[in-house]
């Protein structure tokens, strides 16, 4: 039974990473007509509506501590992660942001070690982390060995990575409350959406829903909101509940690899041997990180 539960957890985490790996393409298409904040507002607003339709039962009986934890998860995993990541892209190179954000499993491991008693660090996690990061660097720089640092943009990307690490720990704690995963995920989305709204006062934003009359934009916002947000946050949170934060976080290594493959298939972007080697290293890093944890159970 335990093996079956873990299998479901791994499948849920892999599914989330697979879909998130394709969001790069949808976001790239959406950015032709939408600002980063507009995409996020529509994405998570529709995500909340979708989760309400799927499971209309309200989350009742929560304590103040539980509400604060959901609010913190929304702030870290929705507002900080996505907003900081998107704003960082306006200051620094996309490759810089992609590499820095991919460090989030490291933050997850550190936070888990500090705040979760049942999450222990293993040596192979760090070996896998180094191998995977080497692969991710190859994927994102893809032959260009020029690294241009921008303190503001790179720091924002680092905050995004740390935010996701904190989110993973918070969702593990929230899963122990015993509420339905859809209810807690919807509450987290609500707080993340709420914290995002003040940004409209300083960042470019307009409603202009008529832009969705174009099928391309309508399809991609539905993919981002229903698939990458509503569904994938559910499967990711389920994986965290079943596997723990550290095991689940290593599936983030898959995301750049999936992006490379989907960019080749959908955007017909050129894939070099360097990016292929980077993809293999990223997947090897995932395998190495997971191999030790299984052996020590």
Number of domains: 1
Proportion of helical residues: over 70%
Structural class comes to mainly alpha
Contiguous uncertain segments of 5+ residues: 292-297
How would you spell out the order of helices and strands? Answer: HHHHHHHHHHHH
Beta strand count: 0
| Backbone CA Rg | 18 Å
Strand content: under 5%
Q: Could you give the distance between the termini?
A: 15 Å
Largest sheet: none
Q: Mean pLDDT, as a whole number? A: 87
The tally of helices reads: 12
How would you describe the overall organization of this protein?
The protein is mainly alpha-helical and 297 residues long. It has one domain. The chain contains twelve helices and no strands. 48% of the residues are buried.
Characteristics of this structure?
297 residues, mainly alpha, 12 helices, 0% strand, globular, disordered C terminus
Short description, anyone?
The chain is an all-alpha fold and 297 residues long.
Topology diagram in text:
Elements (H helix, E strand, L loop, with lengths): L1 H29 L5 H19 L9 H25 L5 H8 L2 H12 L7 H19 L9 H25 L5 H16 L18 H29 L1 H5 L4 H13 L6 H23 L2
């Amino acid at each position: 039974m335990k093996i079956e539960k873990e299998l479901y957890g791994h499948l849920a985490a892999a599914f989330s990473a697979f879909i998130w790996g394709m969001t790069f393409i949808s976001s790239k298409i959406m950015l032709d007509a939408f600002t980063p904040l507009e995409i996020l507002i529509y994405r998570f607003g529709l995500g909340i509506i979708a989760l309400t339709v799927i499971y209309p039962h309200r989350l009742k009986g929560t304590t103040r501590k539980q509400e604060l934890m959901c609010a913190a998860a929304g702030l870290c995993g929705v507002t900080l992660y996505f907003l900081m990541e998107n704003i960082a892209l306006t200051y620094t190179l996309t490759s810089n942001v992609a590499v820095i954000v991919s460090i989030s499993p490291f933050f997850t491991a550190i936070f888990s070690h500090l705040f979760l008693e049942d999450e222990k660090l293993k040596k192979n996690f760090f070996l896998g982390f180094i191998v995977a990061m080497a692969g991710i660097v190859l994927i994102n720089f893809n032959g260009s060995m020029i690294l241009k640092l921008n303190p503001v943009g790179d720091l924002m990307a680092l905050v995004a990575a740390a935010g996701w690490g904190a989110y993973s720990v918070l969702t593990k704690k929230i899963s122990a409350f015993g509420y339905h995963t859809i209810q807690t995920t919807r509450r987290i989305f609500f707080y993340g959406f709420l914290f995002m709204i003040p940004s409209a006062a300083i960042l470019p934003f307009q409603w202009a829903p008529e832009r969705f009359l174009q099928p391309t934009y309508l399809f991609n916002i539905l993919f981002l909101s229903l698939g990458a947000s509503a569904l994938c946050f559910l499967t990711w949170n389920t994986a965290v509940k079943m596997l723990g934060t550290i095991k689940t976080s290593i599936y983030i290594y898959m995301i750049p690899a999936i992006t490379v493959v989907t960019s080749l298939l959908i955007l017909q972007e050129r894939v070099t041997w360097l990016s292929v080697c980077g993809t293999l290293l990223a997947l090897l890093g995932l395998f190495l990180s997971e191999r030790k944890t299984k052996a020590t159970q």
